Amino acid sequence: MPELTQHCVREIDVRMRRAGTGEILLFLHGAAGLPPWTPFFERLAAHYDVLVPEHPGFGTDKHAGKIRNVADLAMYYLDFIDGLGVPVHLAGHSLGGWTAAELAVRNCSRLASLTLIAPAGVPVKGIPTGDNFIWGPEELVRNLYHDQRFADAILARSLSEEEADAMLTNRFMAAKLGWEPRWFSAALERWLHRISAPTLLIWGADDKLMPAAYAKAWEAGVPNLRSAILPECGHVPFVEKADETARLMGDFLEGGSA
Amino acid sequence: MKFAFFHLMPYRPLDFAERAKHRSAWVVLPNRLYDPKKGAEEYASYLDQLTYAEELGFDIVAVNEHHQTAYGMMPAPNLIASALIQRTKAVKIAILGRALPLTANPITIAEEFAMLDNLSKGRIITGFVRGIGTEYHATGLNPAFSHERYQEAHDLIVQAWTRPGPFPFEGEHYNFRYVNLWPRPYQDPHPPIWIPSQGSSETIKWASDPARKYPFLVTFSAADLVSRYLNMYRDSARAFGYEASGDQLGWAAPIYVAESDERAKAEAKAGIESLFNQYLHNPWEMLLPPGYMSLSSMKNTMKMRKALGTRNRDLTIDELMESGTVVVGSTQTVRNRIEQMREKTGLSIVVAMLQFGVLNDEQTKRNMELFAAEVMPKLR
Predict the structure, then answer these.
(1) What is the value of pTM for the model shown?
(2) CB A168 to CB B298 under 8 A?
(3) Residue A118 domain-assigned (yes or no)
(4) Could you count the other beta carbons within 10 Å of the beta carbon of residue A202?
């Protein structure tokens, strides 16, 4: 696993994992915070320079005051990408997917591609998201996965005090960004046509948090989009279907078909 | 000492077997369980009780606000206050309180309180609260901004009551080109503002500030916490350079009085246990949504919970009496308990919740009468 390093953008320093060589692939994490470096990231790092930063306000509340909503977070990542100085492949999961899309409708000029994995941000009326803020701790983990063995493994682990603190901090920041309106911004859907980068959409068919039915709103709005709905998969395809998700992304990024 | 008769207006005809199938009596409890015919009778009984309290000599009658719950049928407590103005003559009417952050326009709160103050010719006491955590599930309002909105709404309402209008208000959450209240409040400079709370050092410091000196009411807490928070308030006042008066210190608790300790406990048991276990109990995700407490307070709370273990069984009336969260007993016992709290804290406001949970009308009436005849006079 690559070491955690600090990455600073306009006086906001965050923790980041980075590994691999090649074109830059910037991965924006979901509401649960900085993900562990799993085989999925290892596979991507075989071909790309993979950057997985922790969003400001996650892990520690040091910079929480500077980010009040997802639009702020998207502007922060535009600064982040400007700082890298080269075009990037941008990917995001859930809250990170929403952020990536908010960024892309504002400015696609430095995006070589966009990958959205079970993104929040665009609702479909009549199909509410799951209520992750009312679910109990076990219920939440169970509702994130189709295959309950993944949930069992997570629930069997006991958290250190530091991890429990970080989890609570992440929960606070997630609420700040996604509580109201619940996991979407009213404006985003109106501007999806501005996403000019080639876009890949990946969704678990059995996603109880962001229903896979939301894929149709993205398919209708984003001009250059291909989508893949993974059967027997919950809200975290890059964990539950790691190989499949990495293969889809690999094919897409190399210009093959998803 | 001043005595308030406080009501939550619980929905007593609740189907408790159905209630047990849901995680809470708040927000998610299907409203098909509310029968309007029975509910209307509940309102009638409760208004009678509040009106009767004036006849019995209570100084204050008090109501409060909660949303989407069988725990209390007052999402709009000012409607009840307005009815009470028409049915009473001299008693003070306290709304403890309105949940400021939940509204998109706090000027409406300033306006409604000002109207009630005029309608009652100055009998209104207001309470400013944030609502409990479940309120943020019920309204959808982001708990992360609860504290900010409370502070800003407070400033806006007090300015609306006291600054010559029209004036503009420029905030983070609230922005108004014209703030110009018609009517202005009847009381000068404005109705009293009380702060009901379960206690936090930040709130206590803020309420006790000499610029405010807001009476602080500790609600639903064990006796040692009530004492600790009220003394924290006194210490904070001393740090500001003044001595807090008893009129700034209050305690709100369920109270039941009967001829003997045994009888009081037997009669109060169902009401008390239903209040805490069926009506009030919430999973922590609902009670403490992220941001409702500061991150540091929440971290401490979580550590305490981890140390204590989570409660997965019901509380008993014995435990609640033992901790002093409820006051149940003979007239002598109840007098002593209140007297002890006065000695420990210097408080002179007691907010008595004499109907609680499923406690029926007849028992409520006897409780009120006995409390008014045998407890209040000797403590005044």
Answers:
(1) 0.95
(2) yes
(3) yes
(4) 28
All residues at 6 or more sequence positions from B354 whose CB lies less than 8 Å from its CB, including other chains: B5, B6, B254, B255, B256, B364, B367, B368, B371
Please report the pLDDT score of residue B198 as a whole number.
Answer: 84
Specify the amino acid at residue A248. L
A225 found inside a domain: yes
Contact A180 B302 (CB under 8 A): no
Q: How many helices (H) and strands (E) does chain A have?
A: 9, 8
pLDDT digits 0-9 by tens, B33-59:
999 999 999 999 999 999 999 999 999
With respect to residue A258, please indicate whether it lies within any of the assigned structural domains.
no
Question: What region, left, alpha or beta, does residue A59 occupy, with left being phi > 0 and alpha being psi -120 to 50 degrees?
Answer: left
**CATH code where residue A47 lies:** 3.40.50.1820
Contact call for A175 and B299, based on CB within 8 A: no
Residue B272: closest CA among B2, B5, B4, B8: B8
Residue A199: domain span: 4-253
Residue A186 pLDDT > 50, yes or no?
yes
Look up the domain containing B72 and give its range: 2-379
* CATH code for position B324: 3.20.20.30
Lookup result for tokens 């404006």 = A187
Interface with B, mutate which of A161, A168, A172, A184 (most B CBs under 10 A): A172
Q: Which two tokens stand for residue B211?
A: 């610029």
Question: Which residue is closest to A172 within chain B, CA to CA?
Answer: B290
Count: domains in chain A: 1
* Chosen from A134, A163, A182 to mutate, greatest number of chain B CBs within 10 A: A134
Question: Cβ A133–B141 below 8 Å, yes or no?
Answer: no
- How many structural domains does chain B have? 1
Contacts of A211 (CB under 8 A, 6+ apart): A124, A127, A129
Could you tell me how far CA B96 lies from the centroid of its own chain?
5
Identify which of B82, B332, B319, B353 has the alpha carbon closest to the alpha carbon of residue B220: B353
Q: Do the chains contact at B142 and A175, CB–CB below 8 Å?
A: yes
How far out from the chain centre does Cα A14 lie? 16
Q: Binning pLDDT at 50, 70 and 90, where does residue B166 land?
A: very high
Do A134 and B144 count as a contact with CB atoms less than 8 A apart?
Answer: no
Q: Is B290 on the interface with A (CB under 8 A)?
A: yes
**Å from A136 to nearest chain B CA?**
7
Contacts of B182 (CB under 8 A, 6+ apart): none
Confidence check: pLDDT of A258 > 60: no
